[in-house]
Structure prediction request, 467 residues.
Amino acid sequence: MSKPQPVLFDIGWNACINCGACVAICPQEAGFISPFDTIAVDRPCDIACLLCEKICPVDTITHVLVSKSESLES
Amino acid sequence: MRSTTYDLVIIGSGPAGATVSRYAAEAGLSVLLVDKKQELGAPIQCSGAVSRHALEEVGLPLAEEYILEPIYGFAIYDQAGSATRIDYRQLKAEEYGSGSGLKPLGYVVDRRRFDRYCMTLAERAGVQTWLKTEGIGYEPTPDGRCNVRLRRFNEDITISCRVLVGADGLMSQVGKWAGLQTHIKITELAGCLQFIVDKVETDGLLEIVTGHEWAPGGYAWVFPKGHGYAEIGLGVIPTMTDKPARWHLDKFIRQSFFKERFKDCRILEIQGGGVPLAAPLRTQYADNLVLVGDAARHVNPITGGGIHTALSGGKIAAEFLIEHLSGAHASDCSATMLKGYQDEWLAQLGDKMWKLYHTKTKVFHHDDIPTRDAFLYQTMSDYFDPNSEYKKI
Prediction:
């Protein structure tokens, strides 16, 4: 299996119901969390298991590859 | 920067945290209870069903302030709509009912009011309560105590205490601080969604709908919510469907055998949450730290119910801590000593929860959907049976 590429999550806040399921399933260390009790969206996730996207009851978590988002910015 | 000391700091003022606090303060311990929210209970991530004896067991008055509707029993449906009705108004008419001298089996509560009520009782028992206060970290100190770092209205505060109690919910950060294995398997966390609705009739029963067709890996429910409202919800296991819970809930409302009953329903609130249908945490303690409630995964793996288990577990934790902190080894709050809490919890509650977990696991080991549906329906019906050995969980 190839090493996962770090990703940056994006949350569609319009649909987010602040249920906390994404944080509950997240294997990241403590603190990988946003002020709205979702997974963090301001720093990359190097695990990239994407379980948070799978569990979201309203299907409102997406991601971009960090390598891609950097090239988009530059 | 301020520094203060307490016997206990409790992070998270849900039913578990508030219960530990209240008992500890009543026994004379100094307790600080913090919650990062500005109002408790919200956003609601729970259907609010709790048995009467669960409230009585931890000395909570049955107060109108938080009760939305009394419950008298259950109806378990298979996926085609056949039901097992377990109505205590008929089974034990001399004991249960709405008439004078009769009582309900349980209640659906308003979690916003219920959580605040629990905190108020703790506060009145002498607990110092701080809202808008987030836990940042904790470190055991050489004097056998620990420092808990908090942030309250942007102010950094360090508190020294003897034991930190993590009651910070399923997404427990406190457990992670201590390096506890809090990771939950994706096959055991149900993504749940519920609507509070108007114009759906209910009859004092908790209605539970099984079947892969409606809620793969979980179940759907229709609960009375007081004032003529109802809640319709479901939980699904993400690995058993490629659709989100919301899609399944829409389908359940529009296409199930209840579609006629639901056809005029009006949605008044939308709530969701992650509900573990999993085993309790294997290790619920560390140096100067214990976990309670959802944080310790004290959740019934069959029903996903967590209020009763949070209240009872909170009481067990408090009783252990009160005894330990006044005993011969009071100055030693290392993991070795605090293991006693978990042992006590297993003996009183946990061993049964493990057994329930194995029962649930067996159901979902069946790959054939009709077989699994049949087993789940049977398991649920047995679970709620008046003669079930799990009646008090």
Q: What stands out?
A: The mean pLDDT of chain B is 96. Chain B touches chain A at residues 43, 45, 137, 169-171, 173, 176-177, 183-184, 186, 189, 191-193, 238-239, 244-247, 270-274, 276 (CB under 8 Å).
